[in-house]
Amino acid sequence: MAKLPIITAPDARLKARCTPVEKVDDEIRRLMDDMLETMYDAPGIGLAAPQVGVTKRVIVVDIAGSDDKPAPLAMANPEVIWASEEMAVYEEGCLSLPEHYAEVERPAKVRIRYIDGQNEIREMEAEGLLATCVQHEIDHLEGTLFVDHISRLKRDMILRKLGKAKKSQQPALADAG
Ligand code: K1U
Ligand code: ZN
Fold it and tell me: Is the pTM here over 0.85, yes or no?
């Protein structure tokens, strides 16, 4: 397994619509394993392939706490096939928007269809933090970030701060590009 670098905003690669996986083969299983290692190391509770520069429809999630047994989920082509009318609000973070958080409202329960690591089609129902996290990760596959669900004023403020931070970390690269 390998730890992969996580892309931070602003970056065009985070705005891309990802392509479906045709089959979960060794290459995709390797990507899933690398993404899990990267997520645990960050640490985070989810990660989507575009965050590590891969525009494929692959996500990983594990909302187990540090004292609990790990409960990793790796999904290819995840899709929401049912969402509750009931909504829930969670304070969301994102490894691609480090140190920024905002409350986001999403369906409280969802049913997800996906392909697992053995190339089997599966369905699962999620609620609470798991439902929020899976929806957040599926959004990444469409090039949508949690800041796209909040006011334009707050979004622009967060992206401006991240842009400035990036420029000050890599002045030579930013000036050249
Ligand atoms: O997509 C990502 O960048 C991962 C993101 C997932 C997420 C968090 C909160 C609500 C919805 C989706 C994160 O994991 S941010 C880090 C985080 O939430 C966390 C880190 C350590 C312990 C517990 C949570
Ligand atoms: Zn995210």
Answer: yes
